[in-house]
Amino acid sequence: MKSSKILWIISLIPLLLSCVAVRFLPDKIPMHYDMAGNIDRWGSKYETSIFPALIIFFSLMWTVISAFYKRMATTTKEEKQQVEYENNAQFLNLAAISMALAFSV
Hints:
Blueprint (H helix, E strand, L loop, with lengths): L1 H21 L5 E6 L5 E6 L5 H26 L3 H26 L1
Antiparallel strand pairs: 1-2
């Protein structure tokens, strides 16, 4: 439970920062540069919220998969499988937090 709270806090910080930054950005911002450093694509300031939305989507995906393994751990009768499912859920939570941190940076 604690790791899922950490995951969602880490996942929501980029979205909140993006929402705050959008208010101060101009309507058109450079989105891509060529090898010489010239701007070759302009975009809307709202495109800055695409990546934070992807972080939330992937966090949701990780949470659903981890919940599946936690449910399997409670429904199975064999102790060895319960331990395996619980370990899988813990590993997925750690992977999700690592992914959210890496993408947030």
